[in-house]
Amino acid sequence: MGHKKVCLDCRISLNREFDSGSDLKYPCSECGKPMLLFPHRFKPPKKENIQEWEVVKYLIENGFKYQHIYKNVELKNGVMCFSGYADYPTNIRDAKEFVEKYIGQAQK
Questions:
Q1: Contact by Cβ (8 Å): 8, 53
Q2: CA dist., res. 86 & res. 97, Å (int)
Q3: pLDDT tens digits, residue range 44-70?
Q4: What pLDDT score does 71 carry?
Q5: Ramachandran category for residue 91: left, alpha or beta (phi over 0 → left; psi -120 to 50 → alpha)
């Protein structure tokens, strides 16, 4: 599975083959700024959908880089158990609730 190179400023996404541990930088073809690398599960909004791109930007700024987020995290017999994937939100109101609810799973 590949990754996606994403420029939040230009609202573009390009597919990229999987390359574990790559230190390569990917400049945006439109603005030249470094593009972010997202996992294959990221579904970019349409370029003209500014509101959904703002949600993506808000989630990234709060440590949610479209990694798996688990709905249920509990301690059973001294072992952390994870189950069920949470769906990423597509509007800002839901995104704020999502960040509040799953902040413990955000990447630093």
A1: yes
A2: 12
A3: 999 999 999 999 999 999 999 999 999
A4: 87
A5: beta
